[in-house]
Amino acid sequence: MIGKHFWFNNELRPVAEAVVPADDINFAYGFGVYETLKIRKGLLYFKDLHVDRLLHSARVIGLEHRYQADDLSFALDELCRINSLDNANVKMLLIGAEHAEDSSLYIMALAPFFPPRTSYRDGVHTITFQAERPFPEAKSLSMLTSTIAFRSARRAGAYDALLVDRDGFVREGTRTNLFYCDMASKKLIYTPPCSAVLDGVTRRTVIEALNEDGIQVVERSLHSRELNKFCGLFLTSTSSKIIPIASVDSHQVPGSSLTRGAGKVYNDYLERYRESIERTAR
Question: What are phi and psi of 114, to 5 degrees?
Fold first, then answer.
C-alpha cells in the first residue's frame, strides 16, 4: 500500500488502520467484489466504467450493500487527492454482510505494475490450465482458482495461465482477457464471449479503440484444439494494456501485423482519453 491514507466505508483513514477483522467471515469466504484502476501521470482512467462494473459484480453474486455510484466516485477522488497520487494502482474492495448496511468498502493505493518492455516487443509465454472461475461475469474475491493457475504459470516460467473450461474452450487469463485473429484476416479480431469471461474495462476499451480504427472485434469461442489455427494472440489488463503472446504451452504463436498494431491503436486511444479529460477540466 502506498500513500498515507486509505478509504474505509465513508471516510479517509490513516494507512496504519487498514486492517481486516480476523473473524470477518464474509472476507474470509470471499463474499466480496473488487476493481483495480490505474493512475498514470496523475490521471485516474475510466473511473465511471470501473465503478459501474463493481456494482454489476455485486449484483451478479447477490451482494447487497449501501453504496451508490456517486459514493464510490467521490471516495476515489478523495483518496487520489489526499495522497497526491501520480502513478499508482487503486483497488476497491466491497465486502458483503448479512445486512446491506453492514457491508464494508475499502479503497487503497498500491504500487503500479509495469511489465518489462521486452514483453511488448517479444511477447510472453503462457500455459493452459484446466479450470474456470465461478461466476465468471463478476470480479469477485473468490480467487482460489485464478491463484492456483497463476502460481502454476509462474512455476513454468510463464507470464499467465489461460483458463480452459470443461468443454475445452479457452476463456481468459487468470487476470487478463484474451484476443486472437486468424491467418488471413486484415480487419477482424476475435475474443471469447463476455458471457463466459470477465468483461474487463480494458477489454471494453480495447474493443472500442479497435472499432474506431476500423478493426472489427467479434465474440467467438476458442477451442483449445484450434490454437494452432490462429495467430496474433494477445492479453489485455488494466496494468499491462496489450501484451502479445509468443507461445502457449509448447506451441509457438505466429505474430500478426494486425495485432502488433493494436498496441499503438490502444495507446493512441488512451492519449485521446487523457486529452478529453483535460479539456473538460479546463
Answer: -125, 115
Do domains 2-110 and 117-269 share one topology? The answer is no
For the chain, helix (H) and strand (E) counts, in that order, are 8, 16
Q: Is 2-110 a domain of CATH 1.10.287.180?
A: no
Domain assignments of the chain as residue spans, ordered by start? 2-110, 117-269
Distance set, CA 129 to CA 16, 44, 108, 115, 161 (Å) = 38, 33, 31, 22, 6
What is the spatial distance between Cα 102 and Cα 57, in angstroms, rounded to a whole number?
18
E strand segments, 165-282: 169-173, 177-182, 188-191, 216-219, 222-223, 230-237, 241-248, 251-252
CA distance 275 to 282: 11
Q: Please name every residue paired with 89 in a beta bridge, in sequence order, or none if there are none.
A: 38, 110
Q: Which 3 state secondary structure label does DSSP give 5?
A: strand
pTM: 0.94
C-alpha span between 40 and 19 (Å, rounded): 27
Task: Tell whether the model's pLDDT for residue 282 goes beyond 90.
Answer: no
Q: Do 266 and 206 contact (CB within 8 A), yes or no? A: yes
CB atoms within 10 A of CB 282: 4
* Of 203, 191, 281, 197, residue with least CA distance to 240: 203
The per-residue pLDDT for range 82-104, each reduced to its tens digit, is 999 999 999 999 999 999 999 99
Instruction: Report the residue count for the chain.
Output: 282
Q: How far is CA 216 from CA 10, 36, 133, 187, 231, in A?
A: 42, 27, 28, 6, 16
Q: Which fold has domain 117-269?
A: D-amino Acid Aminotransferase; Chain A, domain 2 (3.20.10)
